[in-house]
Structure formats: C-alpha cells, structure tokens
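[Meeting: bench + compute handoff]

Bench side (C.D.) handed over the final construct sequence. Compute side (W.E.) agreed to return the predicted structure before the next meeting so the bench team could plan truncations. Sequence as handed over:
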Amino acid sequence: MRFIVLSLLALLALAAPASAQSDRSIADRLPLFAKNNCQQIRDPGNQLFCGDAALAAAAEKLNTAIEARLARLPDRLPAIEENAVWNRQRNLGCGIVGQTAVRPDDFERVKACLLKVTEERAAILRDPDFDCLAANTAAGALICADPSLALAETELNGQALGLIGKLDPTAARFAFAEYGRWTRERDRKCNLVGKENVPLQELESAEDCLSEQLKRRTEEIRAAKGDPKKVFGRQVAARIPDTDAVDFCAARIHAANSCGSFLRINRVYALDSQVTEQEAQVTGEIEMAVLAPFTMCSKVASSCTGTCWDARTGRPQPGAANRERSAEAFNVTRRLRIQRTFAFVKAADGWRCREDELAPVNSGTASGGS
C-alpha cells in the first residue's frame, strides 16, 4: 500500500523543471537533495519533501496515516482521489504555483507551511472514528455534519469491509462495485443527487432518509451473520428499466473489466427510455472520476469509458487507429461523462441488462482536473 501512495505522489509531479540556477540554489539548502536524487522530481513541493529531513519525516507519518485510512474504508478509491486533490491544494496554499520553482527568499516560509499542513493532515487522517475528508457529495456533507450519521456510516463501512474481505479477489471486486452502487442508489432515494452546492440547512429534511438507509443496510449485513454471499452478488436484475437499472448495468461492467483501479462512477441518470412488454432500451448518462492516470486511447479507456478520447477537444474519438498514436493520459480528478443506450430484457426476476461493455457511447465530454 505504501508503494501505491508514494506512486500517486510521483504521478502528481506534473510541473516542468525549474531553471538550473533556481534548482541549484534550492538544492544547496536541502541536505538530502543529492543523496535522494531529488533533481529527478519535477514538482517543486515534492522536491522539498525529498531533500529536507523534517519534511521527509512528516511525509512518512502522513503516508502511514493514509495507509491506515485506506485500510479502514470499504471503498478506498474516493480517498485516493481526495488525496490527489489535497496535494495540489497543499502546494497552492503554501505559495507554490504550478511549475514555478520556490524562490530562495521564500524557502523558509514555504518549508514551514508545508510542514505545518502535512502534520495537521496526518493528525486528521489518524482519527479512526470520522472520515469526512472525501465528502464531495451532498450526502457526504450531511453525514459529516451529524455525529450520529457519521458513526452509523462508520459502523456500516466497517461491517461491509469485513464481509468483502472474506471473498476471493474477483467476487470482492464485484462486491465493492455493488456497494458503490448501493451508495448512489441511497443518495437518489434521499433526493440528494446534484445538490453539492446547496447549503446544509436546506438539506436537513434528508437526514431521516439517510439514517433509515444506513440502518436498513446495517441490519441486512448483521442478519447475514458473517456470510458475504447473503449480502453481495444476489441481485442480477433491476425492478424497472430506469436510473437504478442503468447504474446496476454500468457497475457490473466496471467490475468485470477491473475498472475500479482507474475510475469511480460518481453518478448515473436515465435520460430516456423505450419500453415494451419484454424489452427496453434506456439511454443513460454516466459520470466517472479518474482515480489513477491512464492513456486516453487504451484498453482501459475503451473498456471502462466506452471510447478513446481526443486530448485537444475532450470528446470521444473512437477507432483502433487512434490507439497506436495517442500517448496523452487522463490525470487524477478528471471527470468523464458519457451517454449510452443500454438494452434490457424482461425476466422472471426483473429487467436484466444485455450489455457487457460500455462501447460504443452515444456522446461524451472530459472536463476538470489538469
């Protein structure tokens, strides 16, 4: 896990090298600069962490806290995304802008700032009772603002993680996808989708709904008495061909293609449907967040987003020819939004999705991130 965390830090080092003169001046004030080959790191903030003993020790403590946090979350991927965002904000907050090297006159101030915010971050992450740092949804903000909801979610996450841990890797991958889908379904039932910027006081009416959903899911897991197969992997059909059905289909496609290492489904909408007695076609919109870099035209892009992408326009660009010449990669926190029509067939237990991949998509956009 430590390798993953440190690798993510390295992947975020996107800025171009500073001038040789500025590098030399900073290097002279970093005792570990030459020993640790810090000149190979392009991000000015990470260069300081590499070459300074106090900052390196603080970073080690933060990495330990990050590992512990990831180990106690049933869905680690939103936390990985949130860590990447925090690293960029850390630099900006301490006066490091993009690819601009730290000025010698600002060295002590920037170093003190980085040390302070890193130690504060580690202290927050070490708290095992509350995990509100990745609350990038309206439901997450409500849960973090209410200790009873936060405790209820912590209990549920712990029990869900315990069950998933008993499954083999393939079944666990599908269980994680199913748990993420349940969370999105919960937010839809509580009418909280798309309300990230709504003041909390205007969302208080949803607190009872969240409490009930968390309680019901916890009771379901308790009733399983430690048997994960009584909780996960049972649903293979949707009640009606709607948003929940599209979400169910997309989640299974992502699990089947091991997309969870690269992408997280943020939200799903059903835009249109055509339903007959035995068949249905539902056009859905799926928003995904990039959790780890991958090439814009690659097997991951095709399998997990349904298309190759044009780096210049941020639009879908299908075709095998593009796969060979595209070296551009999506970076962490990018948002990809696709529209696709899914086919369903009526079965005895509900509506079953006929799709086993996301390609081809009807349309799409890539935005955000860097």
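W.E. noted at the follow-up: The longest helix spans residues 169-189. C.D. will use this when planning the next construct.
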